[in-house]
Amino acid sequence: MAEPSGGKRIMRPGDEAPAGTPGTDEVVCPECEGAGELIGKPCIACNGTGMVNRRPEDRESA
Fold first, then answer.
1. What are φ and ψ of residue 36, in 5° steps?
2. Which end of the chain is more exposed for a tag (fewer CB within 10 A), N or C?
3. How many CB atoms lie within 10 A of CB 35?
4. pTM for the complete prediction?
5. 52 pLDDT higher than 80
6. Got the DSSP string for the chain?
7. pLDDT bracket for residue 54 (50, 70, 90)
């Protein structure tokens, strides 16, 4: 993910860490299951992207 000017990495509401942080993975949002919306509105957990950044041990097992 590209960093915006100023060097700050973008974080979405459900992120634990900025994108690209060592030891984290981008995973499907557990709230909207990757759809990016809930009941026709953008998901607040992922900000409508369908993905969040998590540490691997925090992922729900399938």
1. 85, -5
2. C
3. 13
4. 0.60
5. yes
6. -PPPTTSPPP--TT-SS-TT-TT-EEEE-TTTTTSSEETTEE-TTTTTSSEEEE-GGGSPP-
7. confident
Q: C-alpha angle with apex 38: 33 to 43, nearest 5 degrees?
A: 75
CA 17 from chain center: how many Å?
Answer: 9
More confident residue, 4 or 56: 56
Residue with token string 């969040």: 52
Beta bridge partners of 52: 27
Low-confidence winner among 4-13, 21-30, 37-46 (lowest mean pLDDT): 4-13
Query: Are 30 and 60 within 8 A, CB to CB?
Result: yes
